[in-house]
Design brief:
heterotrimer, A mainly alpha (about 350), B alpha/beta (about 325), C mainly alpha (about 325), B: about 325 residues, alpha/beta, 8-stranded mixed β-sheet, 11 helices, 12 strands, C: about 325 residues, mainly alpha
């Protein structure tokens, strides 16, 4: 019988050698998942490249294109293929009066995408405009998510009267059609600037569109956050923590916040895309970014006059927006897939 | 009526192929209840899902033979399979709370199955639904037929699901842990219902469970599975009176005894089921088996006599000795 | 039951009042906003300013001004514009409503049909090249600024390819009323319809596909398969039916917002004088009565759409009915 009896030592040795998969935290798993998502990684790379190019705007304008994209250049002449060509050509359309800006030269060194109605270098303006568009989209997203997180957490966690008041405020804000709110606030604030007590922002500042775009979507994000906090409050691990006597602020920070962080992270690329589109719409309507600053939306507006003769002025920034927003959306999809626990590989247990 | 031979199901994953079912063979005769026992991961559900052709995973590789009433099911076209599913072979699942589509009444859903397989009028299908609901013991069937699933309790929902499964008089009903999600009193009712239906409808039943008590109550024959393989197979009597495989012993041991001195600790089987990614060479249960010896490094085949098969290298004498040793242990523990 | 309806109506009213107050405050009460100086023009003398103020009633307390405006807007309906004196606001809004309606209804038909088809096909062929292509196209549609797409469409149809047989039929920008010129009405709206629908088609297709795929993981789909139902039937009758709830909810809200004037960018780009354009012009010229009227119009539809959606939700999802 002894040869058939496994000793306890053998058993333990057997267990120690059988490979158990190493434990991994949820953030690491999510990161790995994201990194294996090739489309999302490509989108991220694209986005980084776009940001990089736009950051280099001053370098491009000064050293490569050698133009000042903010100064009218109606009478200037530049070198193209060895010949001096006027930036604004005599118009051949209609009555032959007026001027038509030059079209794309496809030459990096000067007026790559042609000139706009003021004789300015479209390519250089595109890069500068990109800086503003990206900056506004980014900062307004931070504001939006920050405020939404605050409101959502406070309303959801503390409940009661606080929740009631905050929810009513969110309701009223959200009932206002978003575009109307954006346009109304923009028109009012941009024509006058803000001058309340110590806060004084002049009407040309970028802070105005940032602030406006930042607040209009707060209800959109705050509601799901609040919902999530409410659900988490009822979850067993939180109830256990409360039962153990863990103080509220610790529960908030250690149990609830990490889960909410995941939701917020998923919202980041999504809101950036939405905010970028909103900013471009407002700028197109001339109530977003104000001259002399430029953004992709304002350049599209600039290009409206020459739409049929020199479409590149309006086309280029639009294409830039589409590519950037597309990249953000693809990245957003990838982030959502990575952080969604339900999409793990499921081997159904037998 | 149903003959499964050497069924193998593996899934391609990023970590390599996972063998969920590794050479499983069994028969189901007409009108008999076969209990399939095993813990999670033993391959019991997947084996039976393959019978129904319900494994949708493109990474699944299914091999072997499944012959139903003389007809090979593996390799049938989707259309042909659909004619078998729901009509000849029906399956019900574990969680009744989510098994029914929430936006249609239970009568509509039962009628849908009837109408799919039979050319009858809607009226006739509805009448059949009422008939079935009566048969499964749902109170006030005429009214219940127009209820939505969320309006019924868990036990009632499971009855409705069973009614639906039997609507086309299948010769075989596969029940995958039908009572696990229900509480104990309801569990008893459902099991009673299943047995009654075997009498009334004449279907054979494959009852998948991890609960030996359920098996003892309802099954005619039992099959024990471990790590995707069959380890023991036989009549209920044989299995409970004279079990042959150490795993079966472990399963039986872990049932808290109703009589005798009260044990200080509940017995469990030491160790954990193996990861399907890294099955041990030889007997899958070997690492956890007290009685393993050198031969267990090879994979034991399923063999035996008088319909009682076991996959184990223990000779009859060694087995008897182990068995009596166990009895001593039992006394020692309490 | 009646109590619930009354309560809901009360909520709707509350929201609309809230919005009207908010708009009023934004335009009348923001620091630095002085309607009188806007009307009188810059460099107006103090006497002119005072006269204007008295004329328009700006010297009265804000709540009184608000009450008067509301009264003129809803009750006597003789509210007149600040910018075009004598121009009655309420008839103006009613006049332009059909334009927006034409645009939005046509666009909606297009995007609902398109979106549902895209969603169904993508979910049915899940993982295939077709699925990925459709989803990418949808994503591109969602990433385009709608006004820019309109400009591009104009570029193509009015200018670049206007002479080719493909687009020669596209009339110049503008709207032709349905009653006087049905063919013209249709032709002027085709390109705007496509532009408006592109964004929403992409969105709805993606949302529907996601919902269908998620529904496909549910247990009741597995039961349906075990019943021997065909995949098509399962997709349409079981998966789609349960996913419909989300889509219908989304549609109700989007449609309501668009009818109220959310399509203003499309209207501006295509020269359609609809509610959106009216709203925008009023906002630009700070024509407060018109602003108030259009905002009320818009919020009315949003509020009604919300209520309608909640109602439809009850019809579509039996689980809510008995709750």
């Amino acid at each position: 019988m002894t040869d058939q009896t496994a000793s306890a030592v053998d058993l333990v040795a057997e267990e120690a050698s059988s490979p158990l998969p190493a434990a991994r935290g949820p953030w690491v798993t999510a990161l790995r998942k994201l990194r294996s998502d090739r489309a999302a990684m490509a989108a991220l790379l694209l986005f980084v490249v776009i940001v990089g190019l736009c950051m280099l705007a001053p370098l491009y304008a000064t050293y490569v294109a050698k133009t000042d994209p903010f100064r009218s250049n109606l009478t200037g002449k530049i070198m193209v293929d060895g010949k001096r060509v006027p930036v604004m050509e005599s118009s051949t359309e209609g009555l032959g009066l007026g001027f038509t800006p030059m079209g794309p030269t496809w030459d990096f060194r000067a007026y790559f995408l042609g000139a706009d109605g003021q004789g300015r270098d479209v390519a250089a303006r595109l890069l500068y405009g990109g800086r503003n568009s990206l900056w506004i989209a980014g900062v307004s997203t931070v504001i939006c998510l920050g405020m939404a997180a605050l409101v959502g957490l406070v309303a959801g966690f503390f409940g009661g009267a606080i929740d009631w008041v905050l929810s009513r405020l969110l309701d009223v804000l959200w009932a206002f059609p978003v575009y109307l709110l954006a346009i109304s606030l923009s028109i009012v604030l941009i024509s006058h600037g803000i001058d309340i007590g110590p806060i004084s922002i002049n009407s040309g500042s970028l802070s105005l569109p940032i602030f406006i775009i930042g607040i209009i979507y707060v209800p959109y994000v705050a509601r799901p956050i609040r919902g999530q906090v409410l659900a988490l409050k009822e979850s067993e691990f939180v109830l256990a923590a409360i039962g153990l006597g863990v103080p509220s602020h610790r529960i908030l920070f250690r149990d609830i916040l990490p889960n909410v962080m995941a939701t917020l992270i998923v919202f980041v690329p999504l809101m950036m895309a939405i905010n970028m589109l909103t900013e471009s719409a407002l700028s197109f309507l001339s109530i977003g970014v104000q001259p002399p600053d430029a953004s992709w939306g304002t350049i599209i507006q600039d290009g409206q006059e020459q739409l049929y003769t020199r479409p590149m002025v309006a086309l280029a920034p639009g294409i830039a927006i589409v590519i950037t927003v597309l990249a953000l959306n693809i990245l957003g999809d990838g982030v959502r897939d990575a952080l969604d626990p339900r999409s793990k590989l499921r081997i159904r247990s037998a | 009526m149903l003959q499964v031979r050497d069924l193998r199901v593996s899934f391609r994953t990023e970590h390599g192929p996972v063998r969920a079912v590794d050479g499983v063979s069994f028969d189901v005769a007409e009108r008999e209840i076969l209990g399939v026992v095993g813990e999670s991961g033993s391959g019991k559900t997947i084996s039976l899902l393959s019978v129904m052709g319900l494994i949708n995973d493109p990474n699944a590789v299914i091999e072997g033979s499944i012959v139903y009433k003389g007809r090979e099911l593996l390799g049938l076209s989707p259309r042909e399979l659909r004619q078998v599913r729901g009509k000849e072979i029906a399956m019900i699942f574990q969680d009744p709370m989510t098994a029914l589509t929430p936006v249609y009444t239970i009568g509509w859903q039962i009628a849908e199955q009837v109408l799919t397989h039979n050319a009858v009028s809607k009226r006739a299908a509805r009448d059949r639904a009422v008939e079935l609901l009566t048969a499964v013991g749902i109170p006030n069937p005429e009214a219940s037929v127009d209820r939505y699933p969320h309006q019924l309790s868990g036990g009632m929902r499971q009855r409705a699901v069973i009614a639906m499964a039997l609507s086309c008089n299948p010769s075989l009903l596969i029940a995958d842990e039908p009572t696990t999600a229900l509480d104990v009193t309801v569990q008893a009712q459902i099991l009673e219902l299943i047995q009654k239906l075997r009498r009334d409808f004449g279907s054979a039943i494959v009852l998948i469970t991890h609960d030996m008590g359920v098996v003892a109550e309802t099954a005619d024959r039992v099959m024990v599975m471990y790590a995707g393989r069959v380890v023991e197979r036989g009549t209920k009597r044989d299995l409970f009176k004279a079990p042959r495989h150490p795993y079966t012993w472990g399963l039986l041991d872990s049932i808290p005894p109703l009589d005798g001195p009260r044990p200080r600790r509940l017995k469990s089987i030491a160790g954990m089921p193996p990861s399907l990614l890294a099955l041990p060479k030889g007997c899958a249960f070997g690492p956890r088996c007290r009685y393993r010896f050198d031969k267990c490094g090879e994979r034991p085949g399923l063999g035996g006599s008088h319909g009682h098969d076991v996959a184990c290298f223990l000779s009859p004498d060694a087995r008897a000795a182990a068995w009596s040793g166990r009895l001593l242990d039992t006394k020692a523990v309490s | 039951m009646l109590g619930a309806i009354v309560k809901r109506l009360g909520q709707m009213l509350f929201v609309m009042v809230g919005i009207s107050v908010l708009v009023f405050l934004i335009f009348f009460a923001t620091p630095g906003a002085d309607p009188a100086s806007r009307i009188a023009g810059r460099n107006a003398s103090p006497e002119t300013l005072a006269a204007v103020r008295k004329d328009f009633g700006f010297d009265r307390p804000l709540p009184v001004q608000y009450a008067l405006m509301m009264e003129r807007l809803f009750i006597t309906q003789d509210l007149t514009s600040f910018v075009n004196r004598g121009w009655k606001v309420v008839p103006a809004v009613i006049d332009v409503a059909p334009v927006t309606l034409s645009l939005v209804v046509g666009g909606a038909v297009l995007w609902v049909i398109g979106g549902v088809i895209i969603g169904l096909v993508a979910a049915a062929t899940r993982g295939s090249v077709l699925d990925r292509t459709l989803m990418m196209l949808g994503l591109i549609g969602v990433s385009m600024p709608v006004y820019w797409l309109g400009e591009v469409m104009n570029l193509i149809t009015q200018s670049r390819f206007h002479d080719s047989w493909f687009f020669a039929w596209v009339p110049p920008l503008g709207y032709k009323p349905l009653t006087s010129d049905p063919v013209g009405w249709f032709l002027t709206l085709v390109i705007p319809w496509i532009t408006l629908a592109t964004l929403y088609m992409g969105l709805y297709g993606r949302v529907l596909r996601a919902n269908l795929v998620e529904a496909g993981q549910e247990d009741y789909i597995r039961t349906a398969r075990a019943k021997g139902l065909s995949e098509t039937r399962i997709l349409v009758r079981h998966a789609l039916r349960t996913s419909l709830i989300t889509i219908v909810t989304l549609f109700g809200l989007d449609f309501g917002a668009l009818v109220g004037g959310a399509a203003l960018l499309t209207e501006v780009v295509f020269g359609l004088q609809g509610i959106g354009k009216l709203t925008y012009d009023a906002l630009r010229s700070l024509d407060l009565p018109v602003i108030m009227a259009t905002v009320m119009y818009a919020s009315f539809f949003v509020v009604v759409a919300n209520a309608a959606v909640d109602l439809v939700y009850v019809v579509l999802d039996p689980r809510i009915r008995t709750a």
